[in-house]
Every structure is written in C-alpha cells, then in structure tokens.
Amino acid sequence: PTPSAIRPNSNAARDIAAALHPYTDLVAHQQIGPVVITRGEGVRVWDDAGKSYIEAMAGLWCASLGFSNQRLVEAAVAQMRRLPFYHSFSAKSHEPLIELAEMLLARAPVPMSKVFFANSGSEANDSVVKMVWYFNNALGRPQKKKLIGRVKGYHGITTASASLTGIPTNHRSFDVPLAGFIHTLCPHHYRFGEAGESEEAFATRCAEELEKLILAEGPETVAAMWAEPIMGAGGVIVPPATYFEKIQPVLRKYDVLLVADEVICGFWRTGNYWGSQTYGIQPDILTCAKALSASYLPISAVLVNDRVFQGLAQESHRIGTFGHGFTYSGHPVPAAVAVETLKLYDELGIGEHVRRVGPYMQDGLRRRFADHELVGEVRGTGLIGAIELAEDKATHKPFDPARKIGPRLAKLSEANGVISRAMVDVLAFSPPLIITEAEIDEMLDNFGRALDQLA
Ligand code: PLP
C-alpha cells in the first residue's frame, strides 16, 4: 500500500501507530505499513483484504503442519482445562514435560541422556552456551570457554545466541558478538569455493581453517562449535560433500563439543527426522524448536549426551543447584501440543511424504529456475530450498545489495500469491511439510511469474 492507501483506523494504521517490528526498517514501515494476516488453512494464509497466499516459508520455517490442524488445537485446549500452568523448578514436574522428553530421547539421532526445555531457539542456544561453560568449570578447566560459530550461521538473537550468529545484520549497532565468540569459514561452495576447487577440496579447506583457528586461539581455550546441518537464515546453505565428515575429527581431536542447531532442520525438513542424519553429524548437544510444536505454541528443547549431563549433574551437586531455567521451561500447554505434533508426524507418515514431495520440489526449482538469466544457484534438499540471484551467471558476481533485488522479488512473489523470504539475494522455500505436489506446482508457477516480472 502507498501511504495514501493506509486508511485511518485500519489494521495497518493501528499497527504503524503501535507496533515495533522485528527485522523491519522501522522508518520505512511508517510509510509502507504491514501485511496483516488474519487466518490460515492448510498451506495458505489470508490477509485482511481477503487475498490468499501460499505460505512457502511455513511462516518462519516453522508451521510444519500448516495453519489449521485441529488435533493440535484440541491438545492445547485439553491441557489448558486439565493443568494450564505448572513449572519444573526445584524438582517439580508434570506429565506433558515427561512424555515430551521421553519422545525426544527416543527419536534423537545419536544416544542422548536428558532434555532441557526453553521457549525459543534463541533461548535454547543461549542455555547451551551457559551449559558448556558450566560443564567446563565442572571438569576443572575454567579457561576452556571460547565458542565457535560460522560466518552466515544463525542461532538466534539473545545476547549469547546473537554472538554465535555470524550474520552482520544481527551484529551491526547491537555491540555483539561478545568477546570469546569466534567465527569460522562459511561452507558455501558456490560463494566461497575457489575457481576449479571441488566440493570435497573446499570441505578439506574448511576443516583446515577450523583447525588453524582452534590452534591460533589455543585448543585449551576452545569449548564448543555450533552448526546448523543446512544453514537457514544465512541463505539455505547446503554443506559441501564430506564437510561434516572432515570437521568432526578436528573437533574431537581438541575436545571441542559439537552443538547441532536443528531449529530449522529438525523434524523431517531435510527428508530425515534430523538434519544430523542427512549429513552424518554426531552432536554432543542438539537444540530444536519451531516444528517441535508445529509452531502452534512456543517451545524449544536442548538434548545433551550423557557425558555432558554427568558434568552438569556433578557441578550442580557440588554447588547445590543447576541455577538455570525459565518460568516457562516445559510449560504444559506447549509441551502437550509438541507431544501431539510428534505423534502426528508418526501417524501421518510425514517422513514418507517429505521423501516423496521433497525431491519433487527440488526438481521443480532446478527445472524451472536454474537456467533463468537472473539465477546463479538453485540449492536445497527435502522441503528446504532456495534460489540465489546473481548479476553474472558465469562469474557468480552478486547484484549490488543496494539495488535490493531479492527483497523486490519477494514483494513481487507476494503480489503473485506466494510468501517467500529474501535473505539479501537468496529467496527461500520451506513450505509446510504437508504441502502436496499440486500445491508445489502452484507455488512455483506463481513464483516463476514474479521472477519473469523482475527480469
Ligand atoms: N537457530 C536457528 C537455526 C534458527 O533458524 C532460528 C530462528 O530462525 C533460531 C535458532 C532462533 O530461534 P528463535 O527465533 O525461536 O529464537
């Protein structure tokens, strides 16, 4: 809408007057206003003017079962009637928390020992930062505290998780990263591979750079490394062949814990239950959120292996308590919704479905867009994919970010009834896992129309 199109007392006018939006140019917003979404059904949402959209991002990579699953609604209502709140401090517990912890351990990609609950991906990763420090204090090595993230990695926006994040937008003007948070090479072969360098050779170089960084810092000072199986917000960056195979021995050599951030990749997104399974990752600690509850209510989880748990347990016993936790850690209502979500993944055969429609989406993205004059790379696996725009297909030269080509394409896509997400000049697709082949065709047809309009 143009400023004149914003009617007094409309939702848009009221939003402009009252709301401070995440990830928004707050000055431009005063002129442009929001798109106000009022309802959802299946993979679609509607705005307050009645226009419908395919939610090609499942919101924020998260509404895995779409926008109208009544089983999840009923699970929330039933739990609210029975016990709308209880906490888990000081050895109190409740049934939804216990059941969810058991279900996560039973589904973990590697043997895990215990589950801690928080309310968001950021809080889960922030909690792990403190757990890692606590763990190394328990082991009597208080100097082993530095934490490694990756350039373009995204782990959230609390002070510690934003410090792990490697995206300039999340650092600029916020005075993060904090000291002791360091970043290693982004494993994006298309952007950072050298001319003629194979994916395998690039992966070797990534592992060598990681080892150099650990040695330069001093291995006795480096505690843990975070990695998303596929980097989401950094631009759907798929690791090059052999990447995790090569970096994990480096971490083991210097006793650096590996934290798999499965906030996007967890729960079938990449075609396996966990991204860790897709890429051969054996994490010591795993964080998840988003699709854990299909995003109907906020909840996140941290899974720790027995070695980490034993360290935390001994330290808590020595000093009297594990002094960490949120009022809403394992809140019974989101926990009950998460239990129902995990049951639905099993009952609906979401895994088999993603293994069928994921390759269909990947093939559609490549077949329709890989040769397009504005497209540099098409990438992804399962039901997560992206196209990266490039000014020069041969040299991979990107567009000048000031031209805002990506955000313009996202707007055109919206006008064509598809909500994608632009991360600079990368347009992402991470639809609800229930999407059908017909809906994928409709999504890609309409997005393709937007891409042609941009050309
Ligand atoms: N980790 C990853 C991989 C994410 O994609 C996100 C959010 O997109 C987060 C952590 C942070 O989660 P939240 O926004 O729930 O704090």
Overall number of structural domains: 3
Ligands, ions, cofactors: pyridoxal-5'-phosphate
The top level CATH class name of the largest domain: Alpha Beta
Beta strands, count: 15
For this structure, the CATH topology of the largest domain is Aspartate Aminotransferase, domain 2
Structural class: alpha/beta
- Poorly predicted runs: none
Q: Mind summarizing the main beta sheet?
A: 7 strands, mixed
| Average pLDDT, all residues | 97
Distance between the termini: 23 Å
Strand content: 15-25%
Q: What is the CATH architecture assignment of the largest domain?
A: 3-Layer(aba) Sandwich
By CATH's scheme, which homologous superfamily of the largest domain applies?
A: Type I PLP-dependent aspartate aminotransferase-like (Major domain)
Shape: globular
Give the helix proportion (percent range).
Answer: 40-55%
Q: Biggest sheet: strands side by side, in what order?
A: 4-10-9-8-7-5-6
Please state the CA-atom Rg, rounded to the nearest Å: 22 Å
Number of helices: 17
Quaternary assembly: single chain
Describe this structure in words.
The chain has 455 residues and is of the alpha/beta class. The chain has three domains: 1-34, no CATH class; 40-68 and 351-454, Aspartate Aminotransferase, domain 1; 72-347, 3-Layer(aba) Sandwich (Aspartate Aminotransferase, domain 2). Helices cover 42% and strands 15% of the residues. It contains 17 helices and 15 strands. It has helices at residues 11-18, 26-32, 58-62, 70-82, 95-107, 121-138, 159-164, 168-171, 189-192, 199-217, 243-253, 275-278, 306-319, 332-347, 350-369, 405-415, 437-454, and strands at 37-41, 44-47, 52-55, 114-118, 146-150, 181-184, 222-227, 257-261, 285-288, 300-304, 375-381, 384-389, 418-419, 421-423, 426-429. The strands form three sheets. A seven-stranded mixed beta sheet has the order 4-10-9-8-7-5-6, with helices on both faces. Strands 1-2-3-13 form a four-stranded mixed beta sheet. It has a four-stranded antiparallel beta sheet with strand order 11-12-15-14, covered by helices on one side. Helix 10 (199-217) packs parallel to helix 11 and helix 15 (350-369) packs parallel to helix 17. Bound molecules: pyridoxal-5'-phosphate. The site of pyridoxal-5'-phosphate has 15 residues, from helix 6. Keywords: Aminotransferase, Pyridoxal phosphate, Transferase. Its cofactor is pyridoxal 5'-phosphate. This is Aspartate aminotransferase family protein.
